[in-house]
Design a protein that fits this description.
Layout: E1 24-31, E2 35-37, H1 55-62, E3 63-69, H2 70-75, E4 91-94, E5 107-110, H3 114-125, E6 129-132, H4 135-143, E7 149-155, E8 163-164
């Protein structure tokens, strides 16, 4: 099917708009060196970046439920902070010890297999997408073939330490296919320049 000449083009840095289709999304803003959080789940590095207008609203509207892990919840125990408060819905926290979790409105603590957890979240999502906000849970779901898409917004920063999106030492590579038109196996090319407060230190 040919695109209309008036249809907007999607650049390499802008994914096609997300749709609500009952998908399981592994969704993060990630540093260029592969970290989705700093040490101890710190997120103070996520400032000073620009995103496509309407991106937050797009994901808030297409997300029906969120599945996260206990470490992330303990670091940020407030469901009202998801998408800056733009999203409201059921949040499921997978934990081996739900008995010591402080109850919170809209939050359900699960102690079950990850496949059961994502099934519960999909039922609660009501046909919208489930977003997985946990590297470890996402890795387990990926290994079981239960991730539909990996949605990443790569931020122009190098953290050097923290929590990686995918960490499986000694494991085999996981091949991916880029979503959208064109060659799904093509590498994504980015080019950055280090920022410096001293222009004389910039190498041209």
């Amino acid at each position: 099917m040919e695109k209309s000449q008036n249809a907007p083009t999607v650049s390499a840095v802008d994914m096609e708009p997300q749709i609500a289709a009952g998908k399981v999304l592994w969704h993060f803003t990630m540093s260029l060196d592969g970290f989705v959080a700093g040490p101890g789940h710190t997120m103070d590095w996520m400032t000073g970046f620009s995103f496509r207008p309407g991106l937050v609203e797009e994901y808030a509207a297409t997300t029906g439920a969120v599945l996260g892990g206990r470490d992330g919840w303990d670091a940020f125990p407030d469901a009202g902070t998801i998408y800056g408060g733009a999203w409201q819905g059921p949040l499921f926290v997978l934990t081996h010890h739900p008995e010591d979790a402080r109850p919170a409105a809209g939050v359900t603590f699960l102690n079950c297999d990850v496949a059961d957890a994502v099934r519960i979240a999909l039922e609660a999502a009501g046909g919208k997408n489930v977003e997985v906000f946990s590297p470890s849970i996402g890795r387990q779901l990926l290994e079981r073939g239960l991730i539909d898409e990996i949605d990443l917004h790569i931020a122009p920063v190098l953290l050097g330490d923290g929590i990686r999106l995918f960490d499986r030492p000694g494991g085999a590579p996981v091949r991916l296919e880029r979503h959208g038109d064109g060659d799904g196996t093509a590498a994504v090319n980015v080019r950055y320049r280090p920022l410096t407060t001293d222009p004389s230190q910039s190498v041209r």
